[in-house]
Amino acid sequence: xxxxxxxxLNSDIVMGMAQAAGAIVLCAAVVVLCRxxxxxxxxxxxxxxxxxxxxxxxVGMVLAVLLHGNLLVGVLILLAMTFAAAVxxxxxxxxxxxxxxxxxxxxxxxxxxxxxxxxxxxxxxxxIAVLVPVGSMIIANAMNACAQSVERFRADxxxxxxxxxxxxALGADPAVTVAPYVQSAVYASxxxxxxxxxxxxxxxxxxxxxxxxxxxxxxxYAGIYQFIIVAMILAASGIAGLVVTLLMxxxxxxxxxxxxxxxxxxxxxxxxxxxxIMPNPS
Amino acid sequence: xxxxxxxxxxxxxxxxxxxxxxxxxxxxxxxxAMALETKHLSRTTAERVLVNxxxxxxxxxxxxxxxxxxxxxxxxxxxxxxxxxxxTGGSVRLNGQDYRELAxxxxxxxxxxxxxxxxxxxxxxxxxxxFGPRQNGExxxxxxIAALLERVGLPGYQVRDVSNLSGGEAQRVSLARTLANAPxxxxxxxxxSALDDVSARGIEDLVRNIIRERRMTCVIVTHNTVQAHxxxxxxxxxxxxxxxxxxxxxxxxxxx
Lengths: 282, 256
Known about the structure:
- The complex is a heterodimer.
- By secondary structure, chain A is an all-alpha fold.
- Chain A folds into two domains: about 1-65; about 70-265, no CATH class.
- Chain A contains eleven helices and two strands, in the order αααααααααααββ.
- A two-stranded antiparallel ribbon of chain A has the order 1-2.
- In chain A, helix 4 runs antiparallel to helix 5 (about 100-120), helix 5 (about 100-120) packs antiparallel against helix 11 and helix 6 packs parallel to helix 11 (about 220-250).
- Chain A is globular.
- Chain B is of the alpha/beta class.
- Chain B has one domain (about 5-10, about 30-250): P-loop containing nucleotide triphosphate hydrolases (Rossmann fold, 3-Layer(aba) Sandwich).
- Chain B has helices spanning about 5-10, 75-80, 105-110, 125-135, 140-150, 165-180, 195-215, 225-230, 250, and strands at about 35-45, 50-60, 65, 90-95, 95-100, 110-115, 185-190, 215-220, 235-240, 240-250.
- Chain B has a six-stranded mixed sheet with strand order 6-7-8-3-9-10, sandwiched between helices.
- In chain B, helix 4 (about 125-135) packs parallel to helix 6 (about 165-180) and helix 6 packs parallel to helix 7.
- In chain B, about 50% of the residues are buried.
- Chains A and B meet through helix 7 of A and helix 3, helix 4 and helix 6 of B.
């Protein structure tokens, strides 16, 4: 197996690295352009590029070794991916207790239900070479939906503290006072996936379809299969967004129905009396 | 008068028995008078002490003003009285019962609050007035809503959209919305600070009359000592979260 892996270090990989270098140069040009407008993303971009490249090379090597594994290996890989996705999504809610666990539950619920359904209906085979790439797409989108819901819910709640407390002061159930923000958070997580579904085939032809056609599948079947994948991404995103928002809702209030999710000092510009200090535009 | 003398004074000003009970939109909305008492009430956050060991008692039909400089803990103290924030020490008792024994939602229906900003919900005035009772599974009749709006000086405003109200009108709707729950005590957090003088005096008169009619227990936060003179039977002064004086308003604010 190792010998086979070493054999793969052929001219294709060298060519891939050269193409990656070209992509990096283009990203560097964008960073330089941003710098002209005082947008400083040099360090973050460099770290992101380095991480992305190393991670993808590493994943490629791991998959090359694991491609011949069984369903259990595939499930373990997807679980590890779900955990990594939860770590990333929970960074949007660092100030909320247990945000990692909330994100993990939401992504696992969204991706888990959908992948299990696809396996049960035969839409997805237990072949690790299919399960892991398709599963990772679903997990990644559930992660994005989760992060978008968390971000939107937190932003809406902290921007409407007065309205929420007005409702609480009138004896309303906490869930009633944040109902509009639950709706907007779930909607915000679904919107990009709805746009994705609408523009399917018109604006973009996704990778799965392209890959199937290259490997000789019927273009019509490849198209239908791609539709199924994107529809499942929408379903997984909806479940993840809904679950994380509902879990966040419970964390937004104390046991005595007091609003606990408030704008922290680090989220607010400094105030001096009634004067709010904004960033200096110069 | 020394601060210590003033703190010891808990005399009730006025004769609550003579207050007119002229307004009762329905038997269901008629409140029971209730005494509000804090014992060593405190709230401390990681950064600072907001409320420091405050013990006061407010009788039915009495208006207690809370005054003090900005950041003295006036609003923080008020928010502890309906448990919008959790005390870190001491207790609050309603008619002798610790309020932790009550469900928070029930407590907040019984101890109503009008905030500095009206924070009305999008929709009609009538929907806002009916909001509180609806949370308790009760439905106000159109007559009850009309009576409440008439009492706060907004007759015929039921179908008006709240986005078309002036600041004074919005605050009156906020008051009607709170009264719709038939609270036994009323907390007012600088309810007129965002209003012009005419609107502010109108709200003041309204509040004073309603308190007397319904013999409600009332605590009002204000930075305006003139307003405290006009509306409050007793006044307490807070400084850095501590109670520095309490007593009849005329005595406490004599030199201020």
